[in-house]
Amino acid sequence: MANTLSLYRTVKRLGIPDERIILMLADDMACNARNNYPAQVFNNENHQLNLYGDNVEVDYRGYEVTVENFLRVLTGRHESAVPRSKRLLSDEGSHILLYMTGHGGDEFLKFQDSEELQSHDLADAVKQMKEKHRFKELLIMVDTCQAATLFSQLQSPGVLAIGSSMKGENSYSHHLDSDVGVSVVDRFTFYTLAFFEKLNMYSNASLNSLFNSYNPSLLMSTAYYRMDLYQRPLSEVPVTNFFGSVMKTIHTDSAYTGFSAEPKIKVPYVLEDNEADRMMLEREAEEDKIYSQDKKVGSCSFHAWLRHFQERLEDENADTLVKYGFGTMILLLAASTWLSL
Amino acid sequence: MAEDSGAALNPCPPSAAAADGDSTRRTARPGTKRLLLTLSVLLSFLSGLPFLLKSTEIYRSPLPFRSIDSLSSRLQSDHPTLPCRFQAVLLRPDADRFLADRLGSLISEDLVKRTSNDPVSGGCGKNFSVSVTIDSGAGCVRSSVGAGDACLWRCGVADFSGLGGGDEDVDELLDSALREGSECLGSGGGRVYTVVVIERDVAGEGVQVVVGKHRHAWLVGKVSEPEAVSMIGKIFVEIFMNGGKKAGEIGKAEFMPVGADGSVVLSFSLLNADPSDWVYNWEFQKIEKIMLAPVVEALAPIANITVESQVLYHTPKSSISYWDKKLGSYIFTMRDLPFFVNSNEWHLDTSITAAGQSKVLQFVELQKIFQVFIGQLRLLFGLRSNYLDATEMGISRFLNSERGFTEWELDLLYRHHTCFNLLSCATTLESLSKLVQSLPRMIIMDEIGKQVKFSLEAASLALRNASLGIYDASAVSARKARALAEDAFFHPSIMSISYSSIEHYFAIYMPFFAPVSLHVLLAAIKELKRYKRERAKYLTSADQARAAS
């Protein structure tokens, strides 16, 4: 959790506003009964910085962090009641940074100790995102054991991925905080944060320098990155493209002066209602059914009976159908038992 | 009871076997009770199997895959183009039939040359017709292309004698003369765009070219024939067809401002950082009714626009501004512009879940703000507001409209959005069909099937309207088609992770059915074998008895 929160703070410091960040935390540490420092999360044993202190907006916490919700965020298939802050509102010009950390293994990432995100699910979601133009460039950063296997199935163009370790390797934590009793930050994340400490929102350090800053001997694993799907050379891409706020500003060249204070023609302002359109969907269904039934013409009684039987089968729902079936079976069994006695 | 069952279980009744002392013969017919019992159990299992399969069937609403494929291949092969008609009207003293025909063919050639590269989506493609009318007051001549068309210029209607006023008056005059024509959709379909050439001596200024706010432009002055043809062609193609942009810029429909469901939310917020200092208010409702309502109504076919406004207090800035004495106001640097919106403190989000996102920044008198805002809105929709390089095209002036968009600009937007929405709808439906076919055991709800069906209907209606040249109806249908297709694709039930694979199905049902059916089958087979064996014994002994007697 400290991994994610530290990167969250870094990214906010470099200018990405909260509304553009979707933070999913299992959130089981800060208020844990065993936490000596309640409501405080540190990423260093010197306890200098309380990551959970102020201005932390968690979008999905606790039980909401599931593989299904994660994939819904990526593909955009939410229920209609989900608020905007929980949706990924990106378009075809967006650069997205996806950072995942936790326990993982060969082709999977563990969620909440009970579920797994498989690499092919992730690849599938990214493919659907690309088809619907939900991003222009995507950077996936994974800090788990055997992280590089998680993005091995990706095929969509415009995706860059870096993992903290390769297949068969573990990723290690940086140091243990003996006061709190857990390791507080992982090595890959620690060195990533160290790289960003030197930057501010206007700097133009390139992704190449970030990727080259990882030292395998310090990480105790090989940070593997995959750039075969990414067109631009890494030395030309500033890190603020993904970690900072990039907004293209277009000037309005002039005002449009066609307006006068009083209009010559009064126009009625009518609000169109979309409900009428949606209601049509249900009404159409009944009309369809009636129409299709009218078309049937009885030719002979057997066909008529068969058709009637088919209609009955279609009309009944599954439960009554099963009940009919079971009833018949029991009748048959009873008859045969009586016969044998 | 136990004795009876014991006797029934005993394959050879002691009496029959004891009679011969031989296990290969029997005198009594073999019993069929057990065989019937086991066979009936087996049959009841087999008869229950269809019920089981039916009740555990995955419900998949049938999607019209073939129609989707045919729609998308049709749209890919030729982009939908909406027809337009152009007419040039010359007001000159002598009406000459040959001149009209010659000019007509020259202008057509010029247009073909200008549109020779790939037809842009949203333009008229190659689907246009040109006609020339010469009105000399006394006589009226048309080129052969437009003869008989009731939608073209009616000679003698316009009276230019009292013409002394400004460009707006000329515009209104021409509009009243052309009003019949621009509203009607005659043969060939599409709107009629007109350039009127008024030949008279204009003191000093040379040729004056003005583009009006309806569907016409006019040239005043003395021009030579090739110049006139070139200017008319340029107006037709670069202004009326392409909206002032070069051909390469239009095709990219990046950042279309209308959301996937065809709606746009305009949200206006008045921010007050320190209300203890001063409290501001704005007469938003009045201004909105006067200034925004016409724009909203004009854009209604392409976007369902809703307007919201709010006043926020305690919204401090996160960027620092400094006082500039020369300009007499507080200034922000350009570098701070992307970080101006302080999203931590400013809750600017709209009240409903609007589908897209776009931030328009305003500082500062409400009417002036609205003028700038309309300029920004036009920019979002891809239209410039000042046409700075108009002079290089030779246009002297563009007239502005109180609806925010002139009629020819609206036509252009309708065409462009129709084309884009249709293409987007087709690609979305194709992605959906590919996705659905790749997951054969995913539940497809009825709602998705209905949405796809309505989307296809709306798309075909839009194509029909587009070929007839009805711009606004085709824009509405295309928007509806895209909205329905997006709804179907983003339906929350299409989650690949929650479909049950065939292995899952087997894993649920096999633990019960496999052992039970195995036993039943074995029992039936055993009984059948035993029955056959006993029957064979009985038949041989019956034969022997017959042979002996």
Automatic annotation (TrEMBL), chain B:
It comes from the Eukaryota. GO terms for biological process: attachment of GPI anchor to protein; GPI anchor biosynthetic process. It is found in: Endoplasmic reticulum membrane. It is a multi-pass membrane protein. Keywords: Endoplasmic reticulum, Glycoprotein, GPI-anchor biosynthesis, Membrane, Transmembrane, Transmembrane helix. The chain crosses the membrane at residues 35-53, 505-525. Residues 1-27 are annotated as: Disordered. Pathway: Glycolipid biosynthesis; glycosylphosphatidylinositol-anchor biosynthesis. One of its GO terms (cellular component) is GPI-anchor transamidase complex. Its main location: endoplasmic reticulum. It holds the Pfam family PIG-S. This is GPI transamidase component PIG-S isoform X3. It comes from Elaeis guineensis var. tenera (Oil palm).
